[in-house]
């Protein structure tokens, strides 16, 4: 018997095959941890396997391109970030996808605050002291990042903009070598995630001066925000979210969003992500769309002003 197109369209989702959860970065990072955590919970709630696939490269662009071109049938979703869905569109002239036109927002997952770090033996003990050094000594106006075009790079550019001085950006291939050079005084400061810096902080090789969110964070309640430390209008955080290809049926988007929201409320998920320094947010597809609508032009303006480049 041949099924009618209508009957085929009514095949319950998800039942045809496993769902692919694309992580556009290498294993082990924040996006990967979130992906594997949510994949397990979605597998349980949807009663269908959700399999994580890592497709790294071009600041997350390779994985994002893959999802943008995937069938909008609910069997491909991705972990998107501030890079893939806000920053990259202004950094890469040939990105290959449009973060708004090619994707359906599913759910915001979490904010990842960055912290301002200096060397443990730098003699700098506050944001005010760092600013004094930067303004007085042009030879010490250097900051490191985990790579050109990353959110940690743009945090440094944002500080330069707020202070009205030119800073020299020194990009590294990843966070560890950047932190090593800041800890030894080769570079004056950097922004990065608190969890990545904890081993060097605990060893006394790095010092935290401030957090970049507008409120203090639970894992480091004594650390002031950049605004509290005297840098006006400084708010910078990375974010993690889930997207599907544009055209994915709304009932599927709504089910995924609901199940992700429920997963984020479970104690084991909350504890795991919070211990990594994340601020769990959750939220509806429309709330994620609203965030993107403000983030894309915000970082576009800073990238143009600072002449930041992914090269």
What does this structure look like?
It is built from 11 helices and 10 strands. It is globular. Strands 1, 2, 3, 4, 5, 6, 7, 8, 9 and 10 form a 10-stranded mixed sheet that branches. The longest helix has 22 residues, at about 285-305. Helix 2 links the parallel strand 1 and strand 2. Mean pLDDT is about 90; it is low at about 1-10. Helices cover about 40% and strands about 20% of the residues. With about 300 residues, the protein is of the alpha/beta class. The protein folds into 2 domains: about 15-110 and about 240-305, D-Maltodextrin-Binding Protein, domain 2 (3-Layer(aba) Sandwich), CATH 3.40.190; about 115-210, Periplasmic binding protein-like II (D-Maltodextrin-Binding Protein, domain 2, 3-Layer(aba) Sandwich).
């Amino acid at each position: 018997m041949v099924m009618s197109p209508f009957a085929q369209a009514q095949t319950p989702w998800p039942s045809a095959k496993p769902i692919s959860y694309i992580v556009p970065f290498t294993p082990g990072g924040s996006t990967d941890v979130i992906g594997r955590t949510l994949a397990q919970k979605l597998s349980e709630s949807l009663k269908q396997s959700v399999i994580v696939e890592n497709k790294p490269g071009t600041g997350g662009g390779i994985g994002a391109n893959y999802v943008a071109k995937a069938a909008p049938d609910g069997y491909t979703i991705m972990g998107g970030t501030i890079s893939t869905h806000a920053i990259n569109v202004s950094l890469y002239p040939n990105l290959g996808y449009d973060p708004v036109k090619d994707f359906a927002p599913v759910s915001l997952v979490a904010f990842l605050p960055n912290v301002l770090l200096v060397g443990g033996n730098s003699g700098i003990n506050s944001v005010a002291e760092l600013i004094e050094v930067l303004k007085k000594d042009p030879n010490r106006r250097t900051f490191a990042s985990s790579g050109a075009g990353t959110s940690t790079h743009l945090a440094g550019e944002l500080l330069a903009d707020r202070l009205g001085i030119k800073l020299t950006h020194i990009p590294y291939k990843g966070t560890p070598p950047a932190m090593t050079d800041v800890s030894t005084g080769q570079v004056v400061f950097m922004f990065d995630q608190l969890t990545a810096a904890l081993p060097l902080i605990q060893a006394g090789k790095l010092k935290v001066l401030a957090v970049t969110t507008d409120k203090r964070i639970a894992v480091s309640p004594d650390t002031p925000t950049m605004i509290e430390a005297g840098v006006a209008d400084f708010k910078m955080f990375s974010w993690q979210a889930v997207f599907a290809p544009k055209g994915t049926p709304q009932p599927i988007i709504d089910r995924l969003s609901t199940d992700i929201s429920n997963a984020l409320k479970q104690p084991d998920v909350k504890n795991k992500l919070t211990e990594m320094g994340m601020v769990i947010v959750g939220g509806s597809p429309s709330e994620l769309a609203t965030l993107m609508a403000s983030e894309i032009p915000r970082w576009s303006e800073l990238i143009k002003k600072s002449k930041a480049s992914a090269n």
